[in-house]
Amino acid sequence: MGHLERTYSAIHWRAIVISAILLTQSATTAAAGEHAQASSEFSGPLAVKISQLINDPYAYVDKTVTIVGAVGDVCPARGCWADVIDRDGGSVRFKVPDGELVFTAAMAGDQVTATGVFRAHHLNAEQAIGWLTHLAAERGEVFDPLSHTGGLTVFQLEGDQASLNSEVHSL
Question: What's the whole-model pTM score?
């Protein structure tokens, strides 16, 4: 083998080795990126305090969160929501699909762990009056539409999984 052939052969093998190293690094980087993306996509819900949701609700809108507290008021009509109350008296409504998971008055005071997506519903003035009238009717009260003007934003946790006294209830 002549000098030129040996030089070409050495350069050729170096190129193959360097290519193999770059390919390995590229594959490793891509796999790490996919793993990081998968981890962020499938990371569990954020465990938050009810006070965090109350004090900075927009920081959690459209995020999956888990809250813990006592069952407060419940939907008297269908049991489709429960107010979850923290030790300081703050509360967040936990809404579940109608008829799928039912909260009863007997659950009041029991500890609940609720997971769902925290939502903000922006109501115009007419929708706000309708909503407030509906809430009053659920409590057997009459709402005076003149007592409210303008729009209203309703925040609630919407989900389908709750653990009550260590019993898991989910859809």
Answer: 0.70
